[in-house]
User: Fold these one by one.
Assistant:
Number 1:
Amino acid sequence: MKIRAEQPTDEKAIEEVIKSAFEHHPHSNQTEHQIVNALRHANALSLSLVALLEDRVVGHIAFSKVQINGKDLSWYGLAPVSVLPAFQNQGIGSALIREGLQQLKALNARGCVLVGEPEYYVRFGFTHSDSLVYEEIPEEYFMSKTLTDMAIPNGVVKYHKAFNSG
Ligand SMILES: CC(C)(COP(=O)(O)OP(=O)(O)OC[C@H]1O[C@@H](n2cnc3c(N)ncnc32)[C@H](O)[C@@H]1OP(=O)(O)O)[C@@H](O)C(=O)NCCC(=O)NCCS
């Protein structure tokens, strides 16, 4: 399996991976692919990686900047991450998350937040922190991870407006 940055020719395949990964997801309204398209269109897709198996796009992960109390503090949101159903549970999602976090550090990111199942994301060092507030979901599903020695900032987190797409 190979991981690399998305290229313009991957856009359709990325859309298909996201759509099929979220098709039966209980908390999805199936707009995740539209969010990624809107982020790309707004030039706000800070990092967009694909996982390839024999040149086929089988997984994707996106990161975009979040604001904390209305400010850019070099924190990012991981969303969405998707693996084609037939290729799930083979370590592809984990590899995309680990590689994405490494590449975020190279962008001088200070931290990363996400909305997801604690059971899954705790293995990558994400935990819920009372310092960061995201009001739209039960708090245990809002997780964060620092990427520097600095303390987690206090504040209300807001994702890019592309997350209202769809
Ligand atoms: C979540 C997802 C990206 C993980 O990718 P993956 O390649 O299947 O995951 P990996 O093979 O790296 O890891 C598999 C592990 O994750 C666990 N896992 C996968 N989805 C999970 C979930 N929603 N909740 C809890 N654990 C989950 C599996 O049980 C497995 O656990 P184990 O290692 O203890 O056996 C993928 O399953 C997917 O696309 N799901 C649909 C879309 C989605 O839910 N995206 C995340 C929300 S943004």
Note: The longest strand covers residues 56-65.
Number 2:
Amino acid sequence: MISNGTKTPARVDRRFRPSRKAELIAGGLIVLAMLVLFTLVRPTSDAASPAAPDWLTYSDFSQDMPTISTAERVGTVTSHAKASDVLEVLGASSQDADSAMDALRETGLLDRNKLAAGTVLTAYFDEAANEGLGELVSVSLRVDSRTTLLATRKPDGSFMTSTLTARVFTGTRRIAGTIETSLADALIAQGGSDDLADDVAALFPDDTQLAKGGRKGERFDIVYQVAEDERGNVLETGDLLFAAYNGKQSNGSWYRFEPSDTGRAEFYSRQGSTQKPLLTRYPLGYAQISSGFGRRMHPVSGLLLLHSGVDFRAPIGTPIYAAGDGVISQMGWSDGYGRQIHIDHKRGFETVYAHMSGFNTQLSPGMRVKRGDLIGYVGNSGTATGPHLHFEIRENGRYVNPVSLKLPSGRSLATNPEEMEKLREQITTIDTLRGATEPVTTARLTTLTIPTNP
Ligand SMILES: [Zn+2]
């Protein structure tokens, strides 16, 4: 940006010169655009107050500002030019540039020292002011998709900053189609995201091909929430509300629903059931946890280590049951774990049971077990301070916390007419949305109980 000691107006976008007719029109459009901006945003601090804030007075150009002389110039912060340099290149005096940037930083919403390269500054100048030399009157800067800062010149020459927050609405979107390359590609092409593809795949856990993107020709239909601005621009993608899939291996529909008794949002079938959990967290049934997952001082070595599982305190000989359907991958002795069994499950899950006093002698490595099968007994073999089961869950080789691992509840609403009725209403609402051809926003969606994450 700065070379040979002289400032060159590279990257400066001068959009208005009153000398040409076309640019007069462009200038008018910019003023219109500014008016639209001010209409569509509002200051957070003044949201509750009906009185016009200071910056709004300023935005009434027709009275206070000669629009003919207002110019908008856009500059970008680079790794070599800091924000105040950019403003100077755009035409601000160094005092105004510093003063405006100080005002913007006082909000605490910007990095105190340096704005990230790529940050765009939009500066507005009154070209007639200062005896025709021009004067910086305001600077706007987008902090994130919802927040814009606007520093405005006060009569004394200092700058004050307003935070302009876009009004955010909750809306829904539907995407339906056929896979060409992958589900993620198909969703992204229509405004969806990778995450949505993962969420859909998780609803069909037996379909390993779907986890990798699905097969060409397979059909999908999803409804999901979005946060959007007043013009319907999506600011953020929210939760998946519905997914249907029709493929070689997977067929079915799942509706997100939050029963009022538990408040836990899950995906339910039309018949009112969630998926069966792949695993149980409690291979002894419910037993007292004597040591949880996470970092702790190892009771024997005294070192601070990751406790890679959960310890359940129980008397020697307490039966241990397989946490889920799977195949025994290891069964034997290891120094720390003592007598131990490893079981491989679907979707990259593995469970480990350690310090056992004995095995179910009918089992051997390579054998299939069903969830709930007796696999052995609690003991204190290996490095153990007392009788307990050390239980681990690994997901694709990584230790996960068995207690907090997200698992479907396996719940059925069939015996609960009240909740079942609410689920039916939810299903009707979502099915109506699926019939809608245009994006549907909250305004048309007043009856939808929008589920939120717990
Ligand atoms: Zn342990």
Note: The first strand starts at residue 2 and ends at 3.
Number 3:
Amino acid sequence: MSYTALYRNFRPLKFSDMVGQDHITRTLRNQVISNRVGHAYLFNGGRGTGKTTSAKILARVVNCLNPQDGEPCNECEICKEILEGSLTDVVEMDAASNNSVEDIRSIRDEVNFLPTKAKYRVYIIDEVHMLSTGAFNALLKTLEEPPEHVKFILATTEPQKLPTTILSRCQRFDFKKIPDDDIIKRLKIICSEANIKIDDDALKVIAVLSEGHMRDAISILERCSQENVENIKVEEVKELVGLPKLEYISRLAKSIIEYNVIEALEVIDDVINDGKDLYNYLWEVVKYFKDILVYKATSNLKLYSEEELNEIKNLSDKTEETRLLNIIYELSDLENDLKWSSQKTIMFQIGIIKACRKAQVSSEKLEIPVEVKQIEKTQKPEKKEPISNNIKPPASSTTTTSNNTDSAWKKVIDVLKRNGKIRLYTALINTRINEVNDLIWEVEFPNGLTSFNQKILEDVNNKNELIKEILKITGKEVHLRYKDLKNVSQAKENRPSSPISDLGIDINIID
Ligand SMILES: [Zn+2]
């Protein structure tokens, strides 16, 4: 584990310098003041939440020659030697690398001797859950009958891995994730002492990114401060942790919302020229649209500056919730298509053009819901017309399916409906089967296979469900293939034209 210079230099020296763990530091100080310090502690909590810092402060204050108000003076001979790491009575041990029985036995032998200089021998054992079983047993013996002059402070991120016999002999303190505001408070102190200039918005982003771990927050701050900029801004923080420039993301979102195809394609060019990965970029764009949606519902978002929030508010005001949802669905589909495509740039451009256009012709989006409405109708008891009345699959010239297979397939689809597998059922409406051989069934989609439905059909659980039902009805364990007939014929018609003229999906057969 590497500690940053900032983290070392600005490790709190007193309980009162720590942030976000008041419930713990208050209790520990009170114990010191009232002379009720226990002989074994377990500090539990995520990395960078202050476990080791607290352990070190506690080790000093119990030995300090001049403690004040439950805090070490950090000035006396003992405090200074502990701070320098030269006092042998305070032992820090990382159980991740010293986890053998011998390591713990050496402690057991040692504890019988009086401390050389300080009042107590203090053992701080980090990552204590890493000890071997034998080492735990050895430790337990010491914890059972500890000499008066010994204190143990065990720290762990995974208390569930500790034997209950150990747990029951320790006072346990659970360190919480540190709230963003407390992280910001501490970062501000460090910045002012280390003479680092940084915007408040940038601090906020660091706090959010650190997810409650002070060490991570300080490490991000330190890396930013090495970038040789006079004043650290949000952009530098995001660039450093690898978030794509928000400008690219919000520009594309704005173009889609405003149906501005030309601007959208320009942003994509900029992103490509900047060498950014399109797949990651799209992921961020989808996330951004989700954030706009969240903002619409809650007016609350983290990770954005005031200025960025204004832009999000602006975009949110311009768009209906249903349209935002449609865009998110569509871009998620594109994300999926992109994964399989060898021509990512073209696919991406086509997908974005579609997102800009489809939004204009909103009735197009109704295509699928019409089918869904039909299902809903048939599910109501007062209307008992069978679904097959509404669906007349076009006759196929290629199909070699026997009547038996045909009716078996209908049964399978019916069972899916009855079992409430509505998404899977919807995806298979209007399909028919081409029985390639005894082992392979090809599901044909005469009206095309949307990538939304493709995703449903590729889902492992759904696929297994389908195969299971076929097995029940036909007694055959078949392998399924999906064939998009619409795009096969379209592709043939459009072969000489550019892919942009064909806004369909370029996957014909999915195995
Ligand atoms: Zn002292």
Note: The pocket of zinc ion is lined by residues 64-66, 72-76, 78-79 (CB under 6 Å).
